[in-house]
Amino acid sequence: MNNDIKTLPLFQPKLILTLVIVFCLGNLLPGDRNVAWSAAEPIIVTSSADHRSSQSMEAFRRGNYKLAASHWMKAVSLYNASGMIDEKINALIQLANAYQVLGLHCRSLETLRRAEELTQEINDRARLAAILGSQGNAYFSIGAVKQAGRHLEDSIAMAREAGRPDIEAATLNNLGNLLTVQKEYGEALDEYDKCINLSKKTGNQLLATKALINAARAAVRWLNPKEMETYLEPALEQTRELEDSHDKAYGLVALGQIFHTIGSEFTHSPNLWRNRTYQALIEAVAIADTIGNPRVKSYALGYLGQLYEDEKRIDEALYLTRRAIFAAQQVSAPEILYLWQRQTGRLLRVKGDIDGAIATYRHAMKNLQTIRQDLSTTYQGSDISFRDRGGQIFLEMADLLLKRAETRTNPTAIQDDLKEVRDTIEHLRKAELCDYFQDPCITTLQEKKIQLERLEGIAGHTAVVYPIFFPDRLELLLNLPDETIKRFIVTTNRNELKKGTIIFRRALEKNWKEYKPYAQRLYNWLIRPLEGELTARRIDTLVFIPDDFLRTIPMAALHDGNRFLIGKYAVAIMPGRLTFIKPNLVKEEKARPLLTGLTKSVQNNPPLPKVAEELKTIQELYGGKKLLDENFNIKNLEQELKNIPYTIVHMATHGKFKDNISESYLWTYDGKLTMNDLETLVGLSRFRENPVDLLTLSACETAAGDDRAALGLAGVAVKAGACSALASLWFVGDEVAALLIPEFYRQLKAPGVSKAEALRQAQLKMLTHGVLSVSLREIYSRVCYQWFSIQHEVQHECCEP
């Protein structure tokens, strides 16, 4: 391959978009083996285990981590059968290391836990220090930053006690990586320096080189030229001094990425840095060929393909990228394949081969789906969302399909493309929901019996609206009850839409009088183009599947200049067309509510004195059990939901949804109720004849402009296992909630009224002061914007909107 590359025309570099995959976070190299090996090398005494160990090491060296894991699993079994505890521990550590490289971090943690238990039995403090370091790295990889830091600090302390500077050095490197992600660059460099010094003392040149490269990257992210100069040249020099190995090859790929970043971020001598990028990647390819490592070869070839792509030398870029795909296929590496398949799709699009590009993107999406769990659970402590890590592939695929639809004349073919666009966006929504809840099974058929289904049966006059943002335009897909899809193109751009959305929410929250112009502007973008079709189809309910920042605003508050959107339609929100296998609908006579709430101040939250009145009114309408204040505790909540088949769960309590699911919660009298707790409790009804039909959260809030937090709010019923939810985007005073929420339930009792229509009627009464006494109108005039915050979140087709 080396010679093949040299025959290409001379490379003239331009700016390159780098995908930092290899040396990204966590260990410098995939599954930093120094952490696992620092305690002791395995002592293999049985010929079979020795054979398995040799096969494992060879597979690992070649980058075939799945095969390495398979051999180590068998070695663990052999050692276990022979009662060889020391060797079993070492094999478990190696196996956990392979799982780490493969992105199977939870499996790695479980394997390390087994190794830790055995190590504690034999009281091997040095080996325990190494295991703690590996656990810290695994926790870091799944975004559990606090646990990662605690394990890494414990590992360092224990290594010092045991007199093992080699283990201490390896863990210091990983602690530096953790601090880098937390943007504590100065402290990170201090830890890298400690690692470098200790590594030199113990003669571990490889670990010192890793720490130098990591330190160089931290300096670049810090935009600190002085520190860059301190680390970068020694890193390159020491990397080149290493023996040819996959560590050296990965080091060169990492340095190539760092060189590219410098050329991009710093204006002086960009061509110099681009050429250094090229040289580093060429050297990595040569070493990969020498040692027979297809994985690292794939990375290096793929990034070279990007360089040529940026130079618009499409044929050469396509050649290199296809070679990268071939190398990744040799080791069955979907986490690499999807990168280069996406790149191939981009190149084919430039060449005008739209059909070929679409076919290639389909392969990329398929491979991305197989590793989506890893992307969703890796680096959750960072500020990178799934959309940024891999989600753009779905939007690029949708754009290709829309472009092809424009060229088609056959109506059936056009509909096929539009339906594939819809389904592509659905896959993105599902992935984002899993990413937020850190639950890869949240929308899988096997675990929760959820699947994508047709729209049939929701309602005869319901339409689903998909807003899809592209850099140069807004696309609106209108999914009609007969399953036909209409397409509308709006000439605005994503930045303009985002700005308008942010201003709209801010104005709506803070000043009633000033927000209508922004509501009209958004209406003109999102609804006006659809009006003719909505009228012709006699649509009376709109279900929005909002994207990105649109999740942060109440669609009901859009305004056409004469009236609000709810003056025309019932409005509901869905995170995606995700549905349970259809159970029996809950009939009104079977409705059984569990009414919970707080009137007293808990954990410095303000009291909610009107909650008692809110719950009393609902109980008069539907009956049910009430848990108020001291009685609203986790123990009572668990007991009620476990023993009684409630169909409505109403929670009038403070709650917050943030961009990190671990920081999202509801308050009970005796503590926080996390989203996992809520899933466990409400989910107890999932397989009953009448599951929880409605989950109401009447005092929760999301941060302004935080679309991930709004995604969590929209998906809370999916997480909990309820059919739908009624919730507020921002804090609603209990005075308003005590008016609107009971009126919603009152409207819901009318025969044939859907939840969306019930909310619409309640909001319309609020709008016209229809439910207000004269004494309350002064209150309403001060807080009249708040009720728009409450919206209906449809989760599953088991229930009508």
What does this structure look like?
By secondary structure, the chain is of the alpha/beta class. Among the domains are: 104 residues, no CATH class; 123 residues, 2-Layer Sandwich (Nucleotidyltransferase, domain 5); 209 residues, Rossmann fold (3-Layer(aba) Sandwich), CATH 3.40.50.1460. Helices cover 58% and strands 10% of the residues. The strands form four sheets. It has a six-stranded mixed sheet, sandwiched between helices. It has a five-stranded mixed sheet with strand order 4-3-2-5-6. A four-stranded mixed sheet has the order 13-12-11-15. A hairpin with a 7-residue loop joins β11 and β12. The protein is globular.
Summarize the structure.
Keywords: TPR repeat. This protein is an alpha/beta fold and 801 residues long.
Relevant terms:
801 residues; alpha/beta; Nucleotidyltransferase, domain 5; Rossmann fold; 6-stranded mixed β-sheet; 5-stranded mixed β-sheet; disordered C terminus
Model regions low in confidence, pLDDT < 50 over at least 5 residues: 6-47, 375-384, 440-458, 578-587, 770-787, 794-801
Tell me the number of strands. 17
Q: Approximately how much beta-strand content do the residues carry?
A: 5-15%
The biggest beta sheet is recorded as: 6 strands, mixed
Please identify the oligomeric state: single chain
Which shape, going by the Cα principal axes? Answer: globular
CATH topology call of the domain at 586-794: Rossmann fold
InterPro entries: CHAT_dom, TPR-like_helical_dom_sf, TPR_rpt
Keywords: TPR repeat
Domain CHAT: 517-770
Organism: Desulfobacula toluolica (strain DSM 7467 / Tol2)
